[in-house]
Write a structure and sequence with these properties.
Blueprint lengths: L2 H14 L1 H37 L6 E5 L8 E2 L2 E4 L8 H8 L4 E15 L25 E8 L9 E6 L9 E4 L1 H6 L14 E12 L2 E19 L7 E4 H11 L2 E2 L20 E6 L5 H11 L3 E2 L2 H43 L1 H9 L4 H44 L11 H27 L3 H6 L2
Parallel strand pairs: 5-10, 7-9, 8-11
Antiparallel strand pairs: 1-12, 1-13, 2-3, 4-5, 4-8, 4-12, 6-9, 7-10, 8-9
Length: 456
């Protein structure tokens, strides 16, 4: 029997039992769809979500502090004695930006301020929500800081919008507050919406020296609270503003004297002040974070980065991939058992056909070949349909995930169609079907012709 004859007989048998073949293909397709969608989701989580979020983003970010450890101290990440503290200025920013492996450098500014919350401290989102307004603690003024960065590059900063939005990049009278601000009012994170739309007042102070002695003059700003954010730019402050707003507050706070027009007035001796409290350096990839940290340490600055967190995330993602693959594989094995059961039923129904084939000269391997071709064809067809379906399912899930990521200010991710998953879905299903059909095919091949012809 030639291969052409075997393929013709297998195709004819599938057509004769079309309903059973369709059900078998659907079973394999469902299992293959489950496996491929899980594998694609795992691939997206590992090579797309993690890499895209971290590539030029917060996970590959390194915080550079304005003052390095004092001479004689040891840095655990760079075990050598560092030099004297160094302030961060524009020259240091340019030098760090030119280091290999650095994608971008964002300056961080901070200014101490006196914050006066509004009274009342909350606002109802609609007239019908007035009765639902929470009871808050009486607002009290408090000393804090306002931190600012280039909000146009928010995807590179460790800032997550919990409610509302970020201040506009050039806004002088918009701020976002942190959950610590809510805690000060006696609110929890579920009540964030009640502070959005309120106005706070804050003042940066200037030390003025006059003939009557030194005194502090405040520069007051009324700012609208537009959002609630979780930020790791500076965990000690509750107010996030635009870089321009912080620059204005810092400029005002420079020491001066009565009648002086600026901090550079010759009447005043002003100590040099670092224009930046820190830098946020973004490496071009996760793998380059340790090397970039070492280079910055060599320049003489202290650094910190979530390297251990990144390593843990990568390990967890790998574990999730293994679990998802295992679940999908179990489904595919169940489908293979269905193929095996269908092939056993086919052997029982086609005993006379097997007898006729052997009577006209078919050998055992020819009969085995026919049944294996049937099983492989059903498996490959089901695997192909299932792989395409799994990609469609993964794309739908990705659309939902993208909506969430964009709502949080992150870049969406694209679901690809990995060639390995595509080929693995089809070839894997066909191979598993061949394995499942091996025993029924062997049973059919060993059936004696006389016994098969004699069965009614």
């Amino acid at each position: 029997m030639t291969w052409r004859d075997a393929i013709l007989i297998a195709t004819t048998s599938i057509r004769r039992r079309l309903s059973r073949a369709i059900l078998t293909v659907l079973a394999v397709a469902l299992a293959s769809a489950l496996l491929s969608s899980l594998l694609i989701a795992g691939d997206v989580a590992r090579s797309r979500v993690l890499d895209q979020v971290s590539k030029g983003g917060p996970l590959s970010g390194i915080r550079v502090d304005a003052a390095a450890p004092l001479a004689g101290t040891l840095d655990s990440d760079n075990p050598r004695r560092l030099g004297a503290p160094k302030a961060i200025d524009d020259a240091a920013l340019r030098r760090i930006r030119s280091l290999p492996g650095v994608r971008s450098v964002l300056s961080i500014r901070e200014q101490s301020i006196l914050v006066v919350p509004p009274s009342p401290a909350v606002i109802a989102s609609s007239p019908t929500a007035i009765l639902a307004k929470p009871k808050v603690q009486a607002p009290k003024s408090f000393l804090d800081g306002i931190v600012g960065a280039d909000l146009r590059k928010i995807n590179d900063l460790p800032v997550t919008v919990l409610k509302g939005r970020l201040p506009l990049p050039a806004a002088m009278n918009e701020v976002a507050v942190t959950p610590a601000y809510l805690d000060g009012l006696g609110l929890d994170s579920t009540q964030s919406q009640y502070v959005i739309g309120t106005e706070i007042e804050y003042a940066s102070g200037r030390q003025v020296v006059s003939n009557r002695g030194p005194f502090t003059r405040g520069r007051w700003v009324r700012a609208l609270v537009v959002g609630v954010v979780a930020q790791d730019i500076d965990n000690h402050v509750q107010i996030l503003g635009s870089q321009q707003a912080v620059v204005a507050a810092s400029t005002w706070s420079r020491p001066t004297a009565s009648g002086a027009t600026s901090a550079a007035d010759p009447q005043v001796s002003v100590a040099p002040v670092s224009p930046y409290v820190a830098l946020f350096v973004v490496a071009d990839s996760l793998q380059h974070v340790p090397a970039v940290r070492r280079r910055i340490n060599d320049v003489g600055y202290a650094t910190s980065a979530p390297e251990q967190l990144i390593a843990n995330i990568q390990r967890y993602v790998h574990v999730v991939e293994i679990v998802l693959g295992g679940i999908g594989l179990i489904g595919l094995i169940i489908a293979a058992l269905g193929i095996s059961n269908a092939m056993f039923a086919a052997v029982r129904e086609r005993r006379r056909e097997i007898g006729v084939l052997k009577a006209i000269g078919a050998r055992d391997r020819d009969v085995r070949r026919v049944f294996l071709l049937e099983a492989g064809a059903l498996g490959a067809l089901g695997g192909g349909i299932g792989t395409i379906t799994g990609w469609g399912i993964a794309s739908i899930l990705a659309a939902v995930v993208n909506n969430y990521l964009r709502s949080q200010g992150f870049v969406g991710v694209a679901v690809g169609f990995p060639l390995v998953v595509a080929l693995g879905g089809v070839l894997g299903a066909a191979l598993l079907a061949l394995i499942a059909g091996m025993l029924p095919a062997q049973l059919a091949a060993r059936l004696p012709a006389r016994q098969a012809m004699g069965d009614q």
